[in-house]
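Spend some time on the protein that follows and explain the fold to me:
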Amino acid sequence: MGKSRKNKRINFQKGKIMSSEIQVGVVVKLKSVSQKMTVVKRHGENITCCWIDKIGELQEHIFPRQALNVVDDNSKGEKP
């Protein structure tokens, strides 16, 4: 009992277990939109994501953690 353990919340989605922690490089999407985005920075409960819009321009925005879901294909190495 000398070591303390961090409690990590686990999300069960589509039969897969995913950590609630979103790391830099992970592909995510907004809960309300299907556009895939890449996490580029974490700061507290906010996550900075980037993506290429419909006209090919790089976009970046800060989202609250609660608005994002991890995309299941992160382990496949697919591009957002």
Observations:
- The chain has one domain: 11-76.
- The longest strand covers residues 36-43.
- The beta strands are 10-13, 16-19, 27-30, 36-43, 46-52, 58-64, 68-70.
